[in-house]
Amino acid sequence: SAVCKRAGSSEKNLVANEMLLFCLRLVRLVAALLFTALWTILALLWGLGLGLLGQRRAANFGTRLWTALNMATTYPLQGVTVHHTGPSLDSLVDPDRPVLVLSNHPRTFEVVGWTTLFLHQLRQRLLVGLIKQELLYSPFGLALWLMSSLPIDRSGREKTLASIQKWAKALDRCSYAMVVFPDGTRNTEKRLQMKERMLARPHLSPEMKQLVEDVCDVCMPPLAGGVHALLTALPDMQVFLTVCYNDQHVGTLLELCQKPPPVVRVHTVGEVKLPTDRAELEAELLRLWRQHVVPRVRIPAAQNSQAEGAKSE
């Protein structure tokens, strides 16, 4: 009876400690989000103010300012650290050629970690990218537009591709580093819809079918449209691939309170050679995602079964 009482007491203490740890992490997360909101407002004011004055180079510095402020506050508050692997982009970039950086789409809390890639690299280049047109109705999207990023309407394919090509050709080719997330999102529902849509294509080769299966079972597949338009507009462009993920496979902000502080890992694969034919480009992007992204973002089988078990309970 005494043994049973001690066991019951130990179990209660364990549950109490876990609840206390969860509450502590939740408080730290809320504080970190408040800091992030503050730095985002500051960066937006910086970008909007200088952008409206036509000082786009100075306005573009707002992205790096936002990253530095978050690295000094929000990540330490949550115990999150960043680890970089792979070659330095500065050691690979040809100063006389335009640059495109591709990456899988970071999760919400990984964005700060991924942007640290540019704190000490490509500092001579302005960071620009393709953004959803809907973002123009927000201060965030307006600030990015004033920093020379391009809002795109994804509903009209031909018109969108033409606008991307025109935008890319108008940029000072050696002053900018273009950033594109070909997969666009981490949304699970959209991933399953995309998988069904791609597998339903007529005359899909066995290799493409397997590539779609392998990639879509783990993450969103990369789309070739925007990348193809940029390659067509700037055929001598250097293309680099990076991968962003975290070692705890944290997928949501709530999981930041449930799991140990993760390490956000940013891996630079290096320069990749991409074909300009659209069909070949789509297949090559899927191969790159299967080789470099899937193994890093895939949740281990044991961890996945534990998560499923927790959901069933």
Question: What key phrases describe this protein's structure?
Answer:
disordered C terminus; single chain; alpha/beta; 313 residues; 54% helix; 7 strands
Summarize this, please?
This protein has helices spanning 2-52, 56-72, 74-78, 111-115, 139-146, 157-170, 188-199, 206-216, 225-233, 255-258, 278-297, 301-312, and strands spanning 81-85, 99-103, 126-132, 150-152, 176-180, 238-246, 263-271. It is α/β, with parallel strands linked by helices and 313 residues long. Strand 3, helix 5 and strand 4 form a beta-alpha-beta unit.
SSE arrangement, N to C: HHHEEHEHEHEHHHEHEHH
Could you give the order of strands across the largest sheet? Answer: 1-7-6-2-5-3-4
Our estimate of the beta-strand percent is 5-15%
Kindly report the average pLDDT value.
84
Using only C-alpha atoms, the radius of gyration works out to 22 Å
Largest sheet: 7 strands, mixed
Number of helices: 12
Which structural category fits the helices and strands? alpha/beta
Low-confidence stretches: 304-313
Tally of strands: 7
Amino- and carboxy-terminal Cα gap: 29 Å
Range of helix content: 40-55%
What's the overall geometry? globular
What can you see in these coordinates?
The protein is of the alpha/beta class and about 325 residues long. About 55% of the residues lie in helices and about 15% in strands. It is globular.
